[in-house]
Amino acid sequence: MLKTAEQTKVDIRRLDFAFATGAAVRELCRTGWSDRTTGMARGYYQANLAIVPERYAFDFMLFCQRNPKPCPILEVLDPGDPEIKTVALGADVRTDLPRYRIYRDGKLAGEFTDIRKHYRKDHVAFLLGCSFSVDLLLHQLGVEVPYFDGETGILGAYATSIQCAKAGVFSGPQVAFLRIIPKSVLIPVIETTSRYPLAHGGPIHVGDPREIGIKDISRPSYGEYRPPNEEEVHAFWSCGVTPQAVAMAAGLPELISHAPAHMFVTDMKLGGPATGPFC
Amino acid sequence: MLKTAEQTKVDIRRLDFAFATGAAVRELCRTGWSDRTTGMARGYYQANLAIVPERYAFDFMLFCQRNPKPCPILEVLDPGDPEIKTVALGADVRTDLPRYRIYRDGKLAGEFTDIRKHYRKDHVAFLLGCSFSVDLLLHQLGVEVPYFDGETGILGAYATSIQCAKAGVFSGPQVAFLRIIPKSVLIPVIETTSRYPLAHGGPIHVGDPREIGIKDISRPSYGEYRPPNEEEVHAFWSCGVTPQAVAMAAGLPELISHAPAHMFVTDMKLGGPATGPFC
């Protein structure tokens, strides 16, 4: 079951899966899709992946619990177990994401589309909430979501001066991502996102990027930037890249994550039934 | 700073602290109060305490995450750290509860009003949500809260046939507690409690106790029972005793908890600002 990503791309466009189910997108990932999940399975929760060695698992979970805005926990697997039990019944964390990264001693060691060869018995997988989950609601409020109307575009992410609460070896600043928000809908945007703590909740800052330590807004660490016009403002949300950045800074001997924007898509819909972590 | 509980009881009545702050009740516990916290500091979150050896901490936290109804996590302390950092700034988990229990190999080994001699560097303290937190709201809806109008009375708790999701050595049935609810306010009671997932959220069952495996409702495992009249129904909520029962069943070499109904009272008010685990 080798992925033939380049060939798949020719046949399949992201927007064909805009309103597909989470299960359909995961099936696509297992059989060849190795591109970003932005704009796909709209209205479903997407998730960040962080896999850490078991001896770091308690400290990492503690870090997530103490920093619920950047690290909302959706599900944590038993050590060595690749099977997701709650947010996507029967899915396999080793194959069902489009693209993975492996870091060793805090440095990128490789990018993979399947990690079955790399997933060990002492690995613990964390699925953490992702902001893509609320894209559909924001789009309905009139917020620009760059990848909703075309195949490309990605939001910018930035290191900030806001420090996370420490836990064991894990500490460091929050990473935030930027949305350009029309001033006319700023309040409903705050209200709406605040209702979804498992997708990072409300923003952590609105206005001048320098107030949260971002010196050059035009140069995101990841993604793209366009300046707001006079009717718009900068608004920042806690980003799910934070736990990865913190684990890298701790020089963890091993960390496996999704590649940026190449997320795990769950079976849980926004506004779905209240069950498990969603109750 | 020896406690002179019996003497204190003569001078202080629980109802004098009905509308005290969480900090005032903790001060009282440090200086002599060793009785239940039912009906005290109304409107403040109260918490269950479970202290486990560090090598069980990840599995126990995983158990809590997988069973958010009985085990909503308010705060977890660093191994060996007695100081609460978030839900009650600067409070000491070893002295600020009125009464503790120590279990060894699954059996009660003693009851204490102070655990400074027993709290070790490899101990990890978990504060988990408690239903007393929503008593004031239910009372305002017209629900009987037996200890609100007098000094005595306690709700009944029961083992059920509802199994918790397993994590490591931790598995077993949910413990539920019973409230007698007037049928006329059942829906607002469900709506109201559902808004407070950190105080066990909505009920897990309404109606016939046998449907959740309770054979003799007149004999609670803990607490008291009075039958409903024709205008009332039985309603059950997940109980914070569940993690204790599960840890005891696992035969944990050591477990320290609050004594039943002798809770930790936090600084967090229902309807307070959205911060930390309350956001």
Explain how this protein is built.
The structure is a homodimer of 279-residue chains. Chain A is an alpha+beta fold. Chain A contains 6 helices and 11 strands. In chain A, strands 1, 2, 3, 4, 5, 10 and 11 form a 7-stranded antiparallel beta sheet that branches. In chain A, strands 6-7-9-8 form a 4-stranded antiparallel beta sheet, covered by helices on one side. The radius of gyration of chain A is 18 Å and the shape is globular. Chains A and B meet through α3 of A and α3 of B.
Overview features:
homodimer, 279 residues, alpha+beta, seven-stranded antiparallel sheet, four-stranded antiparallel sheet, 6 helices
Largest interface: A-B, 25 and 25 residues
Q: What value does the Rg of chain A take, in angstroms?
A: 18 Å
- Summed up, the helix count of chain A is 6
Strand-pairing-aware structural class of chain A: alpha+beta
In a nutshell, what does this entry contain?
Chain A has helices at 5-11, 22-30, 57-66, 135-140, 186-194, 242-249; strands at 44-53, 73-76, 100-104, 107-112, 123-129, 157-163, 173-182, 205-206, 232-238, 255-258, 264-269.
